[in-house]
Amino acid sequence: MLRNIPANMGGFKLLVTEAPAMKMRENGEGVTEPVTDRQGVHQFVVSLFAKRRVQPGEFAGKGDEIKVTLTADPGEGFEEGTYVELVNATVSHWETQNGDRYRSGLSFRADGLTPLG
């Protein structure tokens, strides 16, 4: 399976739709807990609206909301409505099958966010 492929998101405008927050999950006992990496560092998540940048006369299309896992606390200044760039963005393909239910998709990850002027 392809993992951690460098992703050049420079061709997209990225708008924060949900400010960064600590990434949480429910453990096997139903308790919500923070997500950490293998070294025990807390992970964060941000929701972004991604829309292709266009040249004059081009059609931009719709755009999509993506959730990006951040490998560190991005700090302050990334409220809803802020345009950002991703630092060292990667994308990974995932898939799962539970009985006859099959799901697949892409997961986005970055080392951080940079605000755009």
- The appropriate CATH architecture is Beta Barrel
CATH superfamily caption: Nucleic acid-binding proteins
Any idea of the CATH class?
A: Mainly Beta
The pLDDT mean sits at 92
| Count of individual beta strands | 10
Spatial strand arrangement across the major sheet: 1-8-9-6-5-2-7-10
Total discrete domains:
1
Please describe the biggest sheet, giving its number of strands, its sense, and whether it closes into a barrel.
Answer: 8 strands, mixed
| Rg over C-alpha atoms, rounded to the nearest angstrom | 16 Å
How far apart, in Å, are the first and last alpha carbons? 37 Å
Low-confidence runs: none
Oligomer: single chain
Structural class by SSE content: mainly beta
The helix-strand sequence is EEEEEEEEEE
- In helices, the fraction of residues equals under 10%
Using the alpha-carbon principal axes, give the shape: globular
Secondary-structure map:
Layout: E1 5-6, E2 12-22, E3 24-26, E4 32-34, E5 44-52, E6 64-70, E7 83-87, E8 90-98, E9 101-110, E10 112-115
Parallel strand pairs: 6-9
Antiparallel strand pairs: 1-8, 2-5, 2-7, 3-4, 5-6, 7-10, 8-9
Description:
This protein has strands at 5-6, 12-22, 24-26, 32-34, 44-52, 64-70, 83-87, 90-98, 101-110, 112-115. With 117 residues, the chain is an all-beta fold. The chain has one domain (5-115): OB fold (Dihydrolipoamide Acetyltransferase, E2P). The protein has an 8-stranded mixed sheet, with no helix packed on it. A two-stranded antiparallel sheet has the order 3-4.
